Fold this protein.
Amino acid sequence: MTMFRTLLLAGALAFTSLSTQAQKTKIKTKTADKPATAAAANSLLWEVSGKGLAQPSYIYGTIHLICPQDLQVTEPMKRAFGSSKQVVMELDMDSPTMMQEMQAGMMMTDGQTLEKLLPAADYTRVGDYLKAKAGIPIAQLGMLKPFIVTSIMYPALLGCTPASYETTFVKLAQEQHKEVTGLESVQEQMGFFDKIPYAVQSKMLADMVTKEAEAKQEFQQLLTLYKAQNIEELRTVSSKSSFGFQEYEQLLLDGRNQQWIARIEKQAAAQPTFFAVGAAHLGGTQGVLNLLRQQGYSVKPVLQ
């Protein structure tokens, strides 16, 4: 049951989608300070300074599910993390009530079930897939929101038992006695998905099964871009995904980015902060990095 709950949590975070003591060691950054594509964009770690900040903060782009051998905590990341006073992620990942809060928002309303939403053939295929890949009968999941059920399939697409940057950062924060907070509440984040009709969610669930080879190929493409630290192309490919919510990009990405900026500014002004959000939120003209530049901050990639 513990692994099942962990996968639900990691998968929910994946959609919304995929440092704490003064550090004397200086972190080398590229000199370019433009909202660029090309080489300057090929970084997952960014320094935010200027506009009256006493010390820089850092923003790292995560991928919420990744095979353990691909999860890299580099020396520049360690230095950035160590030079910050707090860690801020999309959600407060070390909150003792977070799991209960998430569970409260996982169930469909109005008596909806997967069996009602999916055509009979798709319901059978999804059920067979869940049983074979996750060992869970679909009857146990029938009242969960379809995007939550979809999350259980991601380990099969990855071909491994996934690791998480979020849980890695929480562990580091606990070891270094750093406070962990979130840019959003659980209710707020789950609320974004509640605006996506169950029918749309259930279609994506069925597509993940009926087009598994295509889904695996796309997932590997995103992983390759992530490992290359190409956040601009990652944003582009994510927004055109055949297994995402393209028509809800404003809701899930751009709108949230806009909302986050004031919260990021407040946290960074209070104390140097290590921010960690999904990498798809970083790139593009409406991405977090460019929005911070528009507010007058210097935002520079950190070499890794």
About this structure: The longest strand covers residues 57-62. The CA atoms of residues 65 and 249 lie 20 Å apart. The chain has 14 helices and six strands. The first helix runs from residue 2 to 15.
